[in-house]
Amino acid sequence: MMKYTIVDKETCIGCGACSDVAPEIFSQDAKGNSHTLLDNNEGTAQVPEELYDDLYDAYEGCPSESIKIADDSFAGNPNKFE
Q1: How many domains in the chain?
Q2: Rounded CA gap, 40 and 59, in Å?
Q3: pLDDT value at position 81?
Q4: Are strands 67-70 and 4-7 parallel, antiparallel or unpaired?
Q5: DSSP symbols for the chain
Q6: How far apart are CA 24 and CA 55, in angstroms?
Q7: In angstroms, rounded to a whole number, what is the distance separating the alpha carbons of residues 54 and 51?
Q8: From CA 33, how far away is CA 17, in angstroms rounded?
Q9: Is residue 18 a contact partner of residue 62, using CB atoms and an 8 Å limit?
Q10: 79 within a domain of the structure (yes/no)
Q11: Which domain, by its residues, includes 18?
């Protein structure tokens, strides 16, 4: 099953834990908040299956629960952060 991810920049505290465990998926922006590298934090690019373990490690390790994972694209989803 496909997976998509996005970071809620409103709740991200910029600790960098996600980019430490999943550097191919997450990085910090100029303000220090995390974002997805796959699609510039749009939540529209499929996460490659070989990165699923890193994705879930980052998700589980996010202290502010800002990383979101879904089976469908976040594009056009007004409730994407619920």
Answers
A1: 1
A2: 17
A3: 66
A4: antiparallel
A5: ---EEEE-TTT-----HHHHH-TTTEEE-TTS-EEETTTTT-S-SPPPGGGHHHHHHHHHH-TT--EEEESS--TT-TTTT-
A6: 9
A7: 5
A8: 11
A9: yes
A10: no
A11: 4-70
| Structure-token pair, residue 18 | 């996600």
Residue 81 lies in a domain: no
Which pLDDT score, from 0 to 100, does residue 23 have? 98
Burial class of residue 14 in the structure, from the number of CB atoms within 10 Å of its CB (0-12 exposed, 13-18 middle, 19+ buried): middle
pTM as predicted: 0.91
Per-residue pLDDT of the chain (82 residues; tens, 9 = 90+): 899 999 999 999 999 999 999 999 999 988 889 999 999 999 999 999 999 999 999 999 999 999 999 999 998 776 776 6
CATH of the domain at 58: 3.30.70.20
Which residue type is seen at 67? I
The b/e string for 37-71 (b: 16+ C-beta within 10 A; e otherwise) is: ebbebebebebeeebeebbbebbeebeeebbbbee
